[in-house]
Design a protein that fits this description.
heterohexamer, A: mainly alpha, 3 helices, 77% helix, C: 255 residues, mainly alpha, 0% strand, binds protoporphyrin IX containing FE, binds adenosine-5'-triphosphate, binds magnesium ion
């Protein structure tokens, strides 16, 4: 076990790489999901506030 | 008065964040300049380490120069500068606020980010604190001297190069003392040399805090009328 | 006959570009994608760290490879995807393509960052320096800059339609860098490894190292795609928020 | 404005631009509650005179004085100026812009902004970035500054440019309120500013280039 | 202009800016010798429509077509456009500016410049740098381009801004001559353009922001 | 068509001469950058000679970057770009004309002036022809690639840094081959290396003559609407 963590004397390098390999994708995932949640909440708030009143103006524009 | 001062800094920071990506852009540019130099002079790591402090300083100086010409020019072109001149804050403080904003969005992020290009140029890790300290003392001087050039060239359409030219001579003392301080710490010169250069650098920085706004305000007055 | 067959090609494209369809489809895909990518990564990590032998030359540091190499591949994959999506966006005016390119950028940038940092962490024990200025490393650094520049351009242009087109031009022109990275090791003398997996005459790498590498690469790729979908969904919502906000301004102006 | 004995006086004023005399020997006097409308052909020096009053252009000879104002402040610090440019940043929102200028020019930003926006019919646009505004909407935002911060002298260089009929109405109302409160207005225009009974100063009738 | 069967037609035109529909379902048609005056409150889309005709803004849906013009050229290449900005460089002189734009837009620069300057009353200023001009003089220089280069469609966005009475007269004369020669004018304005009998298109009466 | 093309170049040259001091300003900036570098890295003449070709290239690149952001921006801000787009010349040629003007006022004067800073950096006189040849081949590429960044950032108020950043990656091949050609000639590598680098440099330059205007026109189209 000890040997496993020791990594042949390169523990600092190998474990930093794996830590980064987990942390960077994780941070990206958290950021993406949080952003999605924030936008979803905003859409909900805006839609309920507007009711049906502004549906006409709010439809997606033609060119994109 | 103070409220107006901070309102101006706040506005500039906000504009920088919205349009220029804030300090991130300056850091990015810094990295790119540092990446270009090895391509130019070859990949020899020892050579790179030797010229690294100088390169970092030159990169700091260039990113300061590049951002400097729009400092007053943007406000001049849309008429904001007229209104800034009509506030109750003296033009000296207007200039000081602009310089502070420039430092916060250009100099400070660069100083904080300096270790990264340092590593890439194979710079000794133990030299980072000294280098960063010197840069931290020098960066405000670059902004506060920079506004002189920005003020002198306001209203000139292609002021970009001209502002850089006018300002470069003023930057040279900062560069000399800054590099000296960094090199002394790096190559283990006797302690006194590093300390002495740093003291001189701080003196230049302090002088620029006064000289810069006063000269810039005079330049603005000349150009605005 | 299905109604789709009576549509012209561009109409069919438009129909597929409908965000509602995309939202529904992606919602169904997301859960399985998460399971597959996380599962592959867990198994991959086990093989990478435990169930594979150290290299006879590089010792335990070879384990860095299982993170470094997939990240490097995905860095290039991300940019290629971005460039392809940009081409589709410019030529066919397909709205989802813009969003795809925009969403791919941060993910690709993250993997480029990972490739750079893990490479540096590998370089220190192997070459004795964190960073050397050889063609491969420099071109990956430039790839990172291109990602950042691409994202900065999106951020700097207020109007999304304009930003999309400008960014697409940048992505396409910058695509020249991808082959340069791939072949830099061949063209210039470098310290860096030449390709040993994707080559004409088959992989030259030991099979017991190939398995964890393949698992990690697949896992990261699925992860990439999963995040891409999440981010594209967020972009569609962001677009909707914008439209709703502007409509609110217009509506209150009418009162 | 408590200073109802305000008086803006120019005597023998001259203006030189690009080495050429634009006008000379100009004298006038405006008192609290009165407006001075500058007219004259293009290039006769209307904008130049306004910039001189705002302290943005050198006075070649003669004097320009404000009596009865705040003795601690210069003339420029007691004046609002609207030139041909609007002093707006596309990346800031309407309300941010107004807050900033109110803070800068010395008003109570938070308190005055809503009323100022309302007075120029901009309230529905408050959170839009300025870059999205049309020419007339921008001009109205530039004018809203005047309402957000109390300053006794208003200098208006062709304020009605790009405004629609309803906005010209609003501007008229705002100007009349300012005059009623004891302020002074100096405005340059080729049209009618809607200020009944204002003095008119016609510049450069002879040099009609 | 020999093409007296010129016709500019918009059908079902829509404009989207910043993700918002500015106008939609707009249709009109202007024939040779006729003028179309766009009016409407600030932000109703007058400038946007002119930019669409000039090819400077995307058409969200609908079509815009010119019949009877030069089939080799696009609509934009047959149109003159004056926007809110004047497209002038302070460092160039008046006559240099005119010569350059005439060369660029396709006229006989040397031959037409003097007459064009004359038509806008700028002849005495010909050798002055543009930076020395007043607002109205600049606007007149921008308008002189139209005279220096013959193009059948004129797009004018609030052309009278900053012009004095005499210049408005001159502009009116020039526009009438253009129409008499079989040209088309589309102009946006809040005032009167002095074109008797022009069609009027009122934009966005409902969205009065 | 050709008349319009040359009219635009002529206008840009005239404006550069009147406002920017023409090529003189660029040369001056070049000199100053070259003068600053020894201050940064120390006055060791051998070291300087070694890095001289690289430094000259980096300085060329930086002065190109500094002038680049106003290339379309100035025309955009005063409405000229709208009218340029309404001429009969395709936007690709507009971009090409602007790039040519940029080369004539920035790149060309620098190449002609290069021997002066070369001398200051203790560069072998016999290497000047090769160095200047390489710079002459590379400088147009810098202008023609530069317009891509200028076109992408037109209409962005603080585009300055952003344009530089977007363009730098494209400058790197020019830099690499340019430096290689100069160094090979300078340090007496076998003849083939210098020739090969020069050939590659010319290839990059030729490619940029096509790629630059096309990409810049696409960027302008995206940004103008
Ligand atoms: C920051 C430094 C580094 C960067 C940016 C980098 C970049 C890359 C890239 C882009 C690839 C993918 C190449 C392709 O598939 O065409 C790659 C693969 C690889 N790298 Fe690195 N690398 C770095 C450092 C290192 C170090 C220090 C080593 C080991 C000594 C290393 C070993 C490898 C290996 C073995 C491959 C796999 C090659 C293959 O099988 O195709 N790298 N690297
Ligand atoms: N650059 C832009 N980005 C986003 N929206 C814009 C932009 N320019 C204008 N708009 C919006 O488009 C609408 C129409 O603007 P436009 O300039 O065409 O109006 P206009 O009729 O010319 O008004 P004015 O009389 O004030 O000149 C306005 O609501 C405005 O907010
Ligand atoms: N920046 C300048 N440099 C030199 N001369 C100038 C400058 N600006 C204006 N002038 C000159 O000063 C004179 C007065 O200009 P001014 O702008 O004050 O006129 P104006 O009455 O406002 O005209 P307009 O009705 O066209 O706005 C003009 O003859 C003009 O040529
Ligand atoms: Mg005026
Ligand atoms: Mg308009």
């Amino acid at each position: 076990m000890e040997e496993f963590f020791h990594m042949g004397g390169y523990a600092a390098y190998v474990w930093t790489v794996y830590a980064l390999g987990v942390v960077v994708p994780l941070a990206l995932a958290v950021h993406s999901i949080a952003d999605y949640g924030r936008q979803a909440r905003l859409v909900e708030a805006l839609e309920s506030e507007a009711g049906g009143r502004i549906r006409r103006a709010a439809r997606p524009e033609q060119d994109r | 008065m103070t409220r107006a001062f901070f309102a101006l800094i706040g506005r500039d920071l906000r504009l920088a964040a919205r349009i220029g990506g804030g300090g991130g852009m300056a850091v990015f540019f810094f990295l790119v300049v540092v990446a270009v130099v090895p391509l130019g002079i070859g990949p020899d790591l020892n050579l790179l380490a030797r010229i690294a402090p100088g390169m970092l300083w030159v990169a700091l100086l260039l990113s300061s120069l590049l951002t400097l010409d729009r400092l007053f020019q943007a406000d001049y072109e849309d008429g904001s500068l007229d209104l800034l001149a009509m506030g109750r804050l003296p033009l000296e403080l207007v200039a000081a606020a602009k310089a502070t904003g420039h430092f916060l969005t250009t100099g400070l992020p660069l100083v904080v980010a300096a270790p990264l290009p340092g590593l890439m140029l194979n710079l000794e890790v133990s030299a980072f604190p000294a280098l960063m300290l010197a840069m931290l003392a020098g960066a405000p001087a670059l902004s506060f001297l920079g506004i002189i050039g920005a003020g002198l060239t306001v209203g000139i359409r292609r002021g970009g190069l001209l502002a850089s030219l006018l300002v470069l001579p003023f930057y040279i003392p900062v560069l000399i003392f800054g590099v000296a301080a960094a090199r002394a710490a790096l190559f283990g010169f006797p302690d006194g040399v590093a300390g002495q250069s740093l003291t001189l650098l701080c003196a230049v920085a302090l002088a620029s805090l006064v000289l810069g706004p006063v000269a810039a305000a005079a330049a603005l007055r000349a150009n605005l009328r | 006959m299905s109604p789709m067959t009576s549509l012209s090609a561009s109409q069919r494209l438009q129909a597929f570009a409908n965000p509602a369809r995309f939202m529904a489809l992606s919602a169904r895909l997301l859960a399985p994608l998460w399971v597959v990518s996380l599962g592959l990564l867990c198994v991959g990590l086990y093989y990478a760290l435990v169930a594979s032998p150290p290299d006879y030359q590089q010792g335990e540091t070879v384990r860095i490879m299982y993170v470094h190499v997939p990240s490097a591949w995905l860095a290039m994959f991300g940019y290629s995807l971005m460039a392809a999506a940009s081409a589709v966006a410019l030529i066919f005016r397909h709205p989802l393509a813009d969003l795809c390119a925009k969403s791919a950028a941060p993910i690709g940038a993250a993997f480029t960052f990972l490739a750079l940092v893990t490479g540096a962490l590998w370089g220190k024990p192997m070459w004795g320096a964190w960073w050397v200025w050889d063609a491969r490393l420099t071109s990956v650094l430039i790839l990172f800059f291109l990602y950042l520049g691409y994202m900065a351009l999106w951020a700097a242009i207020e109007e999304p339609a304009r930003a999309a087109r400008a960014a697409a031009v940048l992505a396409l022109v910058g695509a020249i860098n991808v082959p340069i990275i791939r072949y830099s090791v061949v063209w210039w003398n470098t310290l860096h490894q030449p390709a040993s997996v994707f080559r004409m005459d088959g992989p030259t790498i030991a099979p017991e190292m190939l398995l964890p590498l393949a698992l990690m690469a697949l896992g990261f790729t699925f992860f990439f795609v999963t995040l891409l979908l999440v981010r594209m969904r967020a972009e569609i919502l962001r677009h909707r928020v914008r439209t709703l906000r502007l409509a609110r301004a217009a509506a209150s102006a009418e009162d | 404005m408590t200073t109802s004995d305000l008086r803006l006086t120019a005597s023998n004023l001259a203006c030189v631009r690009g080495g050429r005399i634009v006008f000379e020997g100009l004298s006038f006097s405006v008192t609290a509650g009165a407006a001075l409308v500058l007219t004259g052909p293009n290039g006769s020096g209307k904008s130049s005179l306004l910039r001189q009053i705002a302290g943005l252009l050198d006075i070649a000879s003669g004097t320009l004085a404000l009596d009865g104002g705040d003795p601690e402040l210069t003339l420029a610090e007691q004046a609002h100026y609207l030139g041909h440019l609007d002093a707006l940043k596309p990346a800031m929102t309407v309300v941010e812009t107004l807050r900033f200028w109110a803070a800068w020019l010395g008003g109570d930003a938070a308190a005055n902004a809503p009323a100022a926006l309302e007075s120029m019919g901009l309230a529905p646009l408050a959170d839009l970035p300025v870059g999205y505004l049309s020419a007339g909407q921008k001009r109205r935002l530039a004018l809203a500054r005047f309402v957000a911060t109390p300053r006794p002298i208003w200098l208006l260089d062709e304020p009605t440019v790009a405004l629609d009929a309803a906005s010209i109405e609003r501007l008229g109302a705002v100007m009349r309120a300012h005059l009623a409160g004891g302020g002074i207005i100096v405005g340059a225009t080729h049209l009618d500013l809607g200020l009944a009974g204002a003095q008119t100063l016609r510049l450069g009738a002879e040099a009609a280039a």
